[in-house]
Amino acid sequence: MSQSVSGQGESLVSGSSLYDVLVIGGGNAALCAALMAREAGASVLLLESAPREWRGGNSQHTRNLRCMHDAPQDVLVDAYPEEEYWQDLLKVTGGITNEKLARMVIRSTATCRDWMRKHGVNFQNPLSGTLHVARTNAFFMGGGKALVNAYYRSAERLGVHIRYDSPVDAIELDGGRFIAARSGKERIEARSCVLAAGGFESNREWLREAWGQNERGEWPADNFLIRGTRFNQGVLLRYMLDAGADAIGDPSQSHCVAIDARAPLYDGGICTRIDCVSLGVVVNRDAQRFYDEGEDFWPKRYAIWGRLVAQQPGQIAYSIIDAKSVGRFMPPVFPGTQADTLPELAGKLGLDPAAFTRTVEDYNAACRIGTFDHTVLDDCHTEGLAVSKTHWARPIDTGPFFGYALRPGITFTYLGLKVDEHAAVHFNGMPSDNLFVAGEMMAGNVLGKGYTAGVGMSIGTAFGRIAGDRAAAAAKQQATLTGGERNAA
């Protein structure tokens, strides 16, 4: 195959505009696919809908990759074997996952880091306050933005053509075969294609449709903040579903985190998360607790809280701690609301002081304090409450007191396209031979609900690499069958 391309996406030859592989998307999964296809000798065009300064999708907001390892490995301590990883995933998804595909993802994380380093990604030892994940997660030096930039530099160096501000509106299909993509009035042909354009979390109307109206007459989605990119409108996903691609996942399920209610509407990223939930109590706008704050370690359970808050009146809740908890969690970007007494804190938060004080005092009286240790599932718990706290339960009795208003923060949605182990898009149960999908557009195959830290990057990396490799092979096969010599665009 000809490799007559430049790192800046500028053609060195004239001739056909037919690429071997078209990658639609600009985040981690798309970049992994583009790099793998290019390494296999294919000519590659990557279309990123965002402008260059906002490239990278949700990947720019990430921090780490959840990794299986049977012994200590460079930045990872101890061991995190396949079965434990699988059990963690099984627990957060409630069994709504494809075990075959999930275990593929898990196993791939044991060996992918050397490939990532080859493309410029660096890892660091976990920092203090990184949520009990030194054993399970490898942290990116410089975070997700550095990872995305490294991949783009590597792609340019290898000759991947990259175009920004290039959203794809439609896909031309012949049965289950990819023919071309349409971006505005432009038609872009390729021998194979990888779809990696994200979910629909930035599409407010689709979120409203997915969540509907609740019994209080509210449209919960109207109060959601979008923790991730503003560019994931789900246009390509909707097109593929309307075109008959097999779907997977519940449209109301997502990576949904309780974040600071003062966070921006889009692109707040990881720094908007409130990490002190397990150290105190959480109340709704009626000053009532509604879920066990100490159910499990925060990295395993933090992503359930966005959905829990979404189900509360007004889609708002308040995380309450006292002075004893300060310094034990990752500090948020915005300072908490502070007060010297519980009634004063209630007033500042807009809660009924009597109801709030009663809730906290009832909780305090129910605490059975053993040996507090936030690094293990300790024996500090409550007794006699309608909503128990099973670990880390200590009275909230030492001023000053702090409160953080919470809103649901959507990172990415789980409705997607059904795949097999080759990352192929399916139509009526049959896999396409030249159309593949990776990242958030297929994450619902592994994540039916729930989330655990770093697994989104695991899915995107695993299936991005598979999709890129398969797309290159499909393009090569088609070129052989047609007997046509092609030039890179």
UniProtKB/TrEMBL annotation:
Residues spanning the signal sequence:
none
Gene3D superfamilies found in the cross-reference section: FAD/NAD(P)-binding domain, Succinate dehydrogenase/fumarate reductase flavoprotein, catalytic domain
For activity, the cofactor(s) needed are: FAD
Q: Where, if anywhere, are coiled coils annotated?
A: none
Q: Name one GO molecular function term.
A: oxidoreductase activity
Q: Which domain of life is it from?
A: Bacteria
Taking every annotated instance into account, which residue ranges of this chain make up the domain FAD-dependent oxidoreductase 2 FAD-binding? 20-446
Per its UniProt record, what InterPro entries does this chain match? CobZ, FAD-dep_OxRdtase_2_FAD-bd, FAD-oxidoreductase_2, FAD/NAD-bd_sf, Succ_DH/fumarate_Rdtase_cat_sf
Q: Which Pfam families match?
A: FAD_binding_2 (PF00890)
Q: Which residues cross the membrane?
A: none
Q: Which UniProt keywords apply?
A: FAD, Flavoprotein, Oxidoreductase
Q: Which PANTHER family match?
A: FAD-DEPENDENT OXIDOREDUCTASE 2 FAD BINDING DOMAIN-CONTAINING PROTEIN (PTHR43400:SF7), FUMARATE REDUCTASE (PTHR43400)
Record-given protein name: Tricarballylate dehydrogenase
Instruction: Give the originating organism.
Output: Pollutimonas bauzanensis
